Amino acid sequence: MADKFDVIVIGAGPGGYVAAIRAAQLGLKTACVEKWSNEAGKPVFGGTCLNVGCIPSKALLESSHKFEEAKHDFETHGIMAQDVTVDVAKMQGRKNNIVKNLTQGIASLFKANGVTSIHGAGKLLANKQVEVTDNAGNVTVYDAENVIIATGSRPVEIPPTPLNEHVVDSTGALEFSEVPKRLGVIGAGVIGLELGSVWARLGSEVVVLEAQDTFLGAVDQQLAKDALKQFTKQGLDIRLRARVTGSEVKRGVVKVSYSDTKGDHELKVDKLIVAVGRAPNTDNLLAPDSGVNLDERGFIFVDDQCKTNMPGVWAIGDVVRGPMLAHKASEEGIVVAERIAGHKGHVNYDCIPWVIYTHPEIAWVGKTEEQLKAEGEEYKVGTFPFAASGRAMAANATMGMVKILAHKDTDRILGMHIVGPQASEMIAQGVIAMEFGSSSEDLAMTVFAHPTLSEAVHEAALAVEGKAIHIAQRKKR
Description:
InterPro entries: Class-I_Pyr_Nuc-Dis_Oxidored, FAD/NAD-bd_sf, FAD/NAD-binding_dom, FAD/NAD-linked_Rdtase_dimer_sf, Lipoamide_DH, Pyr_nuc-diS_OxRdtase, Pyr_nucl-diS_OxRdtase_dimer, Pyr_OxRdtase_I_AS. The radius of gyration is 24 Å and the shape is globular. With 477 residues, it is α/β, with parallel strands linked by helices. It contains 13 helices and 22 strands. The strands form 5 sheets. Strands 1, 2, 3, 4, 5, 6 and 17 form a 7-stranded mixed beta sheet that branches. The chain has a 5-stranded parallel beta sheet with strand order 8-15-9-10-11. Strands 18-19-22-21-20 form a 5-stranded antiparallel beta sheet, sandwiched between helices. A hairpin with a 5-residue loop joins strand 21 (401-407) and strand 22. It has helices spanning 16-25, 47-52, 54-72, 88-113, 170-173, 190-201, 221-233, 326-340, 369-375, 390-394, 423-435, 440-444, 455-463, and strands at residues 4-10, 30-34, 116-119, 121-124, 129-133, 139-149, 153-155, 167-168, 182-186, 205-209, 237-239, 243-250, 253-260, 263-269, 271-274, 278-280, 313-315, 354-356, 361-366, 379-385, 401-407, 413-420. Helix 1 packs parallel to helix 8 and helix 3 runs antiparallel to helix 4 (88-113).
């Protein structure tokens, strides 16, 4: 029998590695099991997020945005840049270096905090034992007082579009060595829009096929409609109600069959990205006698505190209910480590921000107007357009708006929604305000620096009561 630990974490993604570090900080003997390997056979930490998700996609989004600015927007600033070209190999190299630095950083943090790294595939057995199978097939069993399952998720595959050299998932879409002339994307969600944006900016003709009737149904629809106009202007051809029925590859061309309200259609592209969602990584994770239950979709069943039905076994992140967001996983990891150590901890699921890193960015926290209407909640609305922001004008980024929803009687902020420049950073103001139970008046009475993009938040808060200064408003009675 191998060592016994106070805590064994299965998975070293943004939920798992954070949980392991916090548990070790709290004085618990902690190990973290990770099966991901690099070319040299060494363990790779960070999970999907750092390796093939959040970080590499943001690196490519940033690079492609700068390229697009140089080609189309520099002239507005009086900067003349002729014959701007892109070196995809260099762009990919930069992205890979960022990923490498961050994943190696986690290894250093494990060492600094005394976390034991165990390389291999973890499986939960009965009595909180963890079986680890390494790359050579050797099996070791570890004992634990507590097990935290943080195995994350993987891209969903669909039968009409089996993956191959030309049909790829989100991981493959981050590795293109050249810009596809014609690119198809299945799914107009967060991942589809971000990856579609990267390659559209670099010169691809992009068609996005979305089966849903509504564009970004989870987003406040006033902002979603605004964003759709901007993406269409940028050249993204987004087709709603488009259900993909099949695909075939001939002579390097992908022929995609789909149907919509007008009938059956065919789309020819050089590459096809399948971005229809993610599924929890629970295959071969639980021994039949482990005592841990899955729901009908393969997620691990947990309560509000991330406890499974088996005492001492916890689960966090993409493998449990709630949004599949890296920051949600990290917070759950911290809270579980705190609870194991005997402290109190709580994740406020009502105050988790969402971000889509397109241009303009889309970010939101709390309820949408559609949700409040459906719930019969009385509310007030304040909006402010970036077109009226001096800082946005200076940055040549005047698309979009800030929208604040507040309770009609108590004035408590129920939601904040932003489409526009730096929305990913500004949404934290709404998160903090809601975390402290703020009213729109609290934000309206707060002094914001001038000139900043954040003044749009101030003005939207003022607009809730018809008091915005820098736009004309109807008087509120």
